[in-house]
Amino acid sequence: MRYLGNKDSLCEKIKEIISSKVEINENTIFFDAFCGTGTMANAFKSECNVIINDNLHCATTYAYGCIVSAQCKFKKLGFNPINYFNSNKETIKGYFYENYSPGNSSRMYFSEYNAGRIDFFRNTIEKWYIEKKINGDEYKYLLACLVESVSFVANTAGVYGAYLKKWDDRALKDIKFLTVDDGINLNGKVSMYSDKIENIIEEIPCDVLYLDPPYTQNQYGTQYHLLETLILNDKPKNISKVTGSRSTREMRSDWSKKYKAHILLDKILAKTNAEHIFLSYNNDGDMSKEYIEAIMKRYGYEESYECVTMPYKKYENWKSKNSKKHYEYLFYIHKKPEGDVVYESPLNYIGSKAKIVPYLKKNMPKRKKIIDAFGGGFNVGINAEYDEIVYNDINFIVKDLIKSFEKYDTYAYIIYVKKFIEKHNLEKGNKETYLEARNYYNDLPEEKKDIRMLFAIIMYSYQQQIRFNSKYGYNNTAGVRWFNDCILAKLISFSRVIKEKKVTFLSCDYVDIESHSKIDEDTFVYLDPPYKLTTGSYNDGKRGFKGWDNNLEKEMFKFIEKLTERKIPCMLSYVLEHKEVRNYELEEWIKKNGYQYIELGNIIGISGQPRKEILVLNYEI
C-alpha cells in the first residue's frame, strides 16, 4: 500500500536505533501512536507486545491485518478466501461502482469492472463476518488485503484526494485479490485504537512510545477518504460532487496545523506513561529541530537526548522539485518522572529561580496551599506541587502578563503574537522597528492595550527584561533577542500547566496578602523579594512601583517572625553576600531567630553575573 510518510525504507535503521536504547523483551509494550501502515509495529511484533493507533480506520485496519496475517487460518470458513476471490469474476453494482467509477458517475477512480469487483469483495467479507464464518483478526486481515489490492488498480497519483483525468494503464488491468502476508508470527498481544492520540495518551500503558505524526498541513483524511469509506462500509450519502469524498471533519488532525502540532507534542510528552520516547520527523516539517530538542529535553533526562539524522529521497514531481536536501530525524529521550520536570516561565525575569527549582521543591514542606508572595516570572509557583497556588506580585503589569498565559487559548496566543510581530516588522536587532512597536503600544489608550502586544515587544528588547517608567510605560531598550523556538517551547509548556493548576492571581503588597487570601497552618509562604545587595529594575523605586531598602527589609523580617509565631512555614530566597559585601543585618536576624539557612552557592543571573544565594527556613526539613 502506498502511504504518505511510511517508514518502509527506514524501518531497519529505526528499529536498530530503538533496540540500542531499549531492552526489548516479551514483556515490553511498544506503542505505535501514528501507525499508518504499521511498519514499525509490524517490525517489533515478533519480539514484544504492540499497540497501534491512528486517526484513520483504514490505516489501523490495514496495520492490524498485516500484524496478525500469519495466524489467520480460516478454519471455520473451510477454504482459502484468497483463492476463492481470485477464482471467480463476480461483480456487484454497489456503492463503489455507483460512486467511484464511470458506471453511474463521472469519477474515474476505478474501471467499472474493478469497482464492481471491489463491491463484491467488500460485501462478501462483511457477510462472512456477520455470519461468524471468520473471526475479528481474519476480518481485519481480509480488509487489509482488500486495501492492498485496491491500491494497485486505483486511477490516482498515489493518494485518493483526486482521480486522474485519463486512464492510467494499470487502472485498466483486472484487479487481483492480493495478500499482505509476511509469514512472521506475533509473539505477544496486539491492541488497536482508532482515535486522536491526544484523546487517549493518558490511558495507554506502554514502555516505548513511537511517534510519527504528520509533518505538514497535508491532511491524511482528505488523501485517503476513499479507503476510509471502503473500511467503514457506511456508504455515506453526502459526498463531494467533484471528488466523491466523504466529510473529513472527524478525520482532520491538528498535527497538520502549525503551532497546534507544537502544542500537541508538549501534551503527549507530558502525559504519556512511556519511559522511552522516539519521534520521527523531518526537516520539511512545521516543527523545527530546535523546538523539538527544547521540548523533549524538558521531559527527558538531558543526557539521554539524541537526534539521529538519516538522509532520504522524497517523492517530487516537476512542480515541487528543488535542490533542498531532505533529512529524516529520529529523536529520543528517556523520560523523567513527572515530579522532576521543570517548567520555565516564558518571561526572562530578573532573579529567576528556574535553575534551582528542583532544590527548592526538595526543601518545601507538605501543605495544601502555597503563596508565591513575590511571584515575578512564576518559576517557583508553577512548579510547586500544591492543591492551591496563589501568585502575587506588586507589579500589576507583570501579574497580567503571567495571568495572560492562563487566560488565553495557547494557540490563539501564539497566532496573536506572531501577527503582531509580522505587522510591526519586529526582528532580531532591528532598533527602528522595535522602538516604533514600543511607542505604538505605550501610546494606546489603556482600554485598547492587549497584554499580548507587550509580550511580543518584550521578546525583542534588551535581554527581554521587564521595566517601566514612572507612568507605567514600557521603556526597555532594543536588544538582539527574539521570539525563538526555545521561548515558544517554554510558553507552550508553561501555558498548559498554568491552565491545569488551580491558581489565584493577586497584585498587592505582600504584607497585605492575608486580606485577599487566607493564611493558616496548611499554607506555605515562599518569599523571593528584591535583594538589598543587588540592583534591578524592580528595586530602585523609580519605575512606578515600590522599591527595596533597609526599612523594607526590616518590615519583611517582622512579617516572617509573625508567620513563625503562628507556626506557618516560610521559605525566604535571599542574598547574604554579593561582590564581597555581606549583609550582616540579615545574618544577625537569622541567628537571633534560630532559623536554618542553606547556602546555594553562585547562581548565574540573566545578566551573566553570579550571585550567592541562600534559603532561609523557619521550619525543620
UniProtKB/TrEMBL annotation:
Keywords: Methyltransferase, S-adenosyl-L-methionine, Transferase. It comes from the Bacteria. GO terms for molecular function: S-adenosyl-L-methionine binding; sequence-specific DNA binding; site-specific DNA-methyltransferase (adenine-specific) activity. Belongs to the N(4)/N(6)-methyltransferase family. Signal peptide: none annotated. Pfam families: MethyltransfD12 (PF02086). One of its GO terms (biological process) is DNA restriction-modification system. It catalyses: a 2'-deoxyadenosine in DNA + S-adenosyl-L-methionine = an N(6)-methyl-2'-deoxyadenosine in DNA + S-adenosyl-L-homocysteine + H(+). It comes from Eubacterium ventriosum. Gene3D superfamilies: Adenine-specific Methyltransferase, Domain 2, Vaccinia Virus protein VP39. Its EC number is 2.1.1.72. This is site-specific DNA-methyltransferase (adenine-specific).
